[in-house]
Amino acid sequence: MRVSSMKRLAATAGALLLAAAGPASARDLVIHAGRLIDGTGAAPRAQVSILVHEDRITAVQPGFVSPAGAEVIDLSNSTVLPGLIDDHVHITQGFHPGDPIHTAMTRTDFDDAIEATVHARNTLMAGFTSARDVGGTTGVVVALKKAINAGVVPGPRLWVAGAPLGPTGGHADSANGLDPELSHPGWTDNLVDSPEAVLRLIQPRETYFLTQFVDARSPDALFRKMRVFFIGERQVIRHLLTSDHWNVHASARGAFMADKPALVAEERRVVEGGVAALPERTQGILRQIKARMQLDFFGADLALREDGSLVLFEANAQMLVHLTDPVELFPYKHRYLPPLFQAVDAMVLKHAAAAHAREGSTTERTDTSQTP
């Protein structure tokens, strides 16, 4: 386990997160931890010293010790835990509310590169010390990775995939939604519309992940994507997005749905009706997804078919929930999303209380066993 050369990384709940944010330090450190959660599943340990040499944890000792020559970081009133890992981030892509077309036409890779340094630091300070970036502009995200490794920019260790390959009009097409007459250097560099184009772009000895295209359009020839959040035992529909393009993203609500009252009303009806209003077959499939994921919190993007079956696009624990849509256009979102946030808070508090109770029970049994 490696330790950052930065002295302190203060995260929520008073936790120090051991991170790699720069080159290794040659000095010795000792961290006095009031409570240590080591990530192995073992019970938390109280009042321990974490000994660090260069960028490696060499020992964890009971009590607070101060070896000669070691720099002491006093977290005796805090909880210390290993850094978290996020395996799906877009660290070079910020969220910019407003017209997505305006954003696409006015931002450059230089803007993304500067903003990415802020995202990297925020990611680290939120407790994530390792992250995998997928889909970022290759030159920008590789430069960010190098800057972090050199200690120029604070951030998590990065594994980067670079720009995706895809067909014209697909996920990788930067010209989506724009006038076909517009062009820009680099927009077509990662487009592949034939097997020959794929062979031209792929590199020997590199690893590529291929996904099959599934035509999930509705009977009206539009594409819909429903996002369901699984929070403990609850299932909450976050949105139903509709677009005339198969690559459906949140921007579709403003770019395609806003001036189509029927589509807005459809989304409102679906999110307010909730999972209970979906066909029984659909509910059964959602229960199967929950059972297979074995997570207390995750989201799933789906397309609902007429027979109640689903096309599952993805399911993971890093899906975004935000409340930035204009209240005058989408007032229902401002009613049903806050309870979703509250459900997440309640789930976290429930688990924290259970962990605290287990720790107290373990401590009580240990104290009893030591009583003459």
Task: Provide a quick synopsis of the model.
This protein is an alpha/beta fold and 372 residues long. It has helices at residues 100-106, 109-125, 138-149, 195-201, 251-257, 261-273, 280-293, 333-369, and strands spanning 15-18, 28-36, 45-53, 56-62, 71-82, 84-89, 128-133, 157-160, 223-231, 234-243, 297-304, 310-316. A hairpin with a 2-residue loop joins strand 9 and strand 10.
- Helical content class: 25-40%
Regions with little confidence, pLDDT below 50 for 5+ residues: 1-25, 363-372
Approximate strand percentage:
15-25%
CATH topology of the domain at 221-372: D-amino Acid Aminotransferase, Chain A, domain 1
Strand count: 12
Average of the residue pLDDT scores:
83
H/I helix tally: 8
The main pleated sheet reads as:
5 strands, mixed
> In which order are the strands of the major sheet placed?
1-5-2-3-4
- What is the name of the CATH architecture of the domain at 221-372? 2-Layer Sandwich
Which radius of gyration do the C-alpha atoms yield? 24 Å
General shape: globular
Q: How far is it from the N-terminal to the C-terminal residue, by CA?
A: 39 Å
SS-based class: alpha/beta
Return the CATH class of the domain at 221-372: Alpha Beta
